[in-house]
Design brief:
The protein has 10 helices and 18 strands. The protein starts with a strand and ends in a 31-residue tail after the last helix. The strands form 3 sheets. Strands 1, 2, 8, 9, 10, 11, 17 and 18 form an 8-stranded mixed sheet that branches. A hairpin with a 2-residue loop joins strand 10 and strand 11. The chain folds into 2 domains: 203 residues, FAD/NAD(P)-binding domain; 155 residues, D-Amino Acid Oxidase, Chain A, domain 2. Helix 1 runs parallel beside helix 7, helix 1 packs across helix 10 and helix 3 crosses helix 10. By secondary structure, it is an alpha/beta fold. It is 26% helix and 28% strand.
Amino acid sequence: MADVVVIGAGISGAASAYELATGGLKVILIDRYGPAAMASGWTLAGVRQSGRHPAELPLARRAVSLWQTLAERLDAPTHYTRRGNLRLARTPEELASLAAMVEEQRAAKLDLSLLDAKQVAELAPAVSPAVLGGSHCPTDGHADPQATVQAFVDAAVRAGAETRFGEDVLSIDTADGRVTGVTTGAGHIPAGRVILAAGVLGNRLLQPLGLSVPMQVRLVTAVRTVPTAPMLDQVIGVANADCAGRQEVTGRFRFTGGSTEWSGEIEDAAMKDGPRPRVRPPARGVADAIRLFGGVVPAMLDTPIDEIWAGLIDQTPDALPVLQSVSDPAGLVIAMGFSGHGFCLGPVTGQIAAAMAQDLPVDLPLEPFALARFDRWNAPSEPMTLHG
């Protein structure tokens, strides 16, 4: 019998398994595909505090502190680079919105500054001279998503965790109001606790339990080029979040466009193309991503494209995740709905979910992430804000 079954081997699930296994618990990490097969592998992989909702900022700050030594803790490369996040304004209206954001976050004691066009050009010469200004957070950065998730998985396995990849969880099993394990295509796995970190696929396991995380599934187009000479240190975003990008340590540009509502079924054939799910972006999305990111980093337009994909985002109405140990069934922890900006939080999300699975206290404010907040939700949904 496992102490805890973790469903989903993205960064949140892998980090949870690592924290539990290094704490001496018997852990099974299960994923329908494999490590970083969905959102954590599709992501731009920014590690940022800037532009966060105030409720998320304490988690982001804690996470950034963990990222500083994460590669050493996991004994594997994460390719974490801390060279700043630069959010750009292309119009006077965007510049005004950035000024307001900088003022608000400086009041929260975040190291953030508003730059004019000349200062942006000095800091990032690859940025288009048409940009009017930007906000700059020097303590933000980025990492390699596949390498980081695999590092968590490998460290968890070294600590005694078991992995089951390519195995689909069919149900979370309960009796007398508490979790008793999970059933997969290979049979029943008894366990006293379950952490559900399955992203857009999570609600199919929650709904038979009378639970659901409200979410709209959004599609984001991503493009990666062949390697080119280093020319961009910062993660680049824009004020209205219609594109974001960075240059990887390999020299490849990795960038995204805006988001659209996903029109397909989660279980359709596009999700079953080989060992990893594949979502094909529309041609319009690819063209928009290239046009928009090329508008702020023109040199990218001369670089050959190597890969194109689309990611699906589990967008909640308030664009905040659900992080909660539920009471019915007891023993179930939900970590879902990260709304396109959960990669940075992964190291701290793992600590939070692991603590919840053991009924241990968490020294971070978690009230804003309770599932019950949606019982009284009557406001318009928040827009998606992909800022790298």
